[in-house]
Amino acid sequence: MGQSAIDLPSRLLLNLKPWRNAQAWRIAFSGGLDSTVLLHLLALLAKTQSLPALSAIHVHHGLQAVADAWPEHCRSVCAALGVSLQVVRVQVQPGASLERAAREARYLAFSDLVQAGEVLLTAQHCDDQAETLLFRLLRGAGVRGLSGMPRQRPLGKGHLLRPLLDVTRAELEAYASEQGLSWIEDPSNQDRQYSRNYLRHQVFPALIRRWPQAQATMARSAAHLAEAQGLLEELACMDLREASSASEFAWLGLRSLELASLVHLSEARQRNALSHWLEPLTRLPDTDHWSGWEDLRDASGDACPVWRLADGELHRAGGRIWWLSGCWLRPPPAAGAWQAQASALALPYNGVLSLTGQIPDGPLQIRYREGGEVMALPGRGHRDLKRLLNERGVPSFVRGRLPLLYKGDQLLAVANLEGLDGSAGGSWNLHWQPPGEDLGLR
User: Fold this and answer.
1) Is 55 annotated as a binding residue?
2) 72 three-class SS
3) Residue 246 in 3-state DSSP?
4) 177 is in an annotated binding site
């Protein structure tokens, strides 16, 4: 970490070597020291190297009055370097942590802007990585959290890359001084009420007085933990491959896992596999809330347990666990009459229904199960719908939203269930396209 700031261009170019064929490099440019140095380095390299097209993005949060002058500063810097700039204004949602809300708004904007084949370059450095490690350690994070900020990860349609993670803040300051650069000093960076600022201004100076290489060694520990997390993810993929057998209800379009393949694993491997599976879907539970998984896993065979998480729910049915989110968590309102001439019927919060073949004489109506329904079947007489659903092992969370086709008080068909969907008569068929998952932005 002791190299001269003069070495920075060659070190940066080496770190960016795998990404030289990207469609474009877009720089997250706040106007502060770190991103100013990154922008200057890239503009300098572009004069002698064949690089992807460079452009910068400045996100304006509007959280403090002084920030209103920053976009103009960023424009002047970019203009002097011959780099185009896009200024994006975002709305920061109120919440317990202003830091986190601003970060989420910023990365949501980046995600929307970065296109396929493009790379967003951000200027986090070695000191930032050390602060991240200590901050997360104090919050009780596991291996995933303690691995720190990844050097690269998918972002929107492209990728995010942090090419300065092996560079210290002192090296960036030395480079900026040598080059005579000017940058924005954000007043909020001095506010000790923010946890990261407290660590930066109060804790790390004391650590560095005793252990001068503290940031470098902590960043190295984060790299070791990132490698360990990679091994855990490989193990999770192996365990999930066995649990990802096809379900006869694949037409639901829901993610599910076979429970039996998970329960024979150790509890640590169960949590590891489920964490990997859930990570793209929801904020992961803390240690205390993993008892919800044990309750769901160990419930009696005839129970319908539910584990409620931040962004959805896990249900257990038919020997599988199912992820439900979005529309699946809202009971569908009454569907109403079916217009026989319509080719499809959009069901509120419940997908789309279609009738194919020779449509039965009307008037027809779509309803949902309330209990006590009876259906006449060729050669079998009248049968309780509940028993018919039990025979086919229809998951309990599906039963209340399966579309039922009625003519008057006569139940004609149950969508998607062979033999009950009208196909027994051979002349028509009731097909339901369930609602898609609302995954949101993770």
Assistant:
1) no
2) helix
3) coil
4) no
Q: Is the pLDDT of residue 427 over 90?
A: no
CATH architecture of residue range(s) 5-228: 3-Layer(aba) Sandwich (3.40)
Give dist(CA 408, CA 171) in Å, integer.
79
**∠ CA 72-33-164, rounded to 5°:** 125
User: Encoding tokens for residue 42?
Assistant: 């890239």
Structure tokens at 221: 């520990």
User: Is the backbone of residue 176 left (phi > 0), alpha (psi -120 to 50) or beta?
Assistant: alpha
Res 424: pLDDT: 63
**pLDDT score, position 185:** 86
The CATH code for residues 244-324 is: 1.20.59.20
What's the whole-number mean pLDDT along residues 219-247? 95
- Does residue 34 have a known ligand-binding role? yes
pLDDT of 375: 92
* 30 annotated binding-site participant: yes
Containing H/E element for 352?
strand 352-357
Position 154 pLDDT exceeds 80:
yes
Six-digit token string for 52: 């992807």
32 is in an annotated binding site: yes
Neighbours of 22 (CB within 10 A): 19
Query: Strand 364-367 relative to strand 410-414: parallel, antiparallel, unpaired?
Result: unpaired
Distance in angstroms (rounded) separating the CA atoms of residues 384 and 95 = 50
Domain boundaries, the chain: 5-228, 244-324, 336-433
pLDDT number for residue 441: 38
Residue with tokens 């104090």: 138
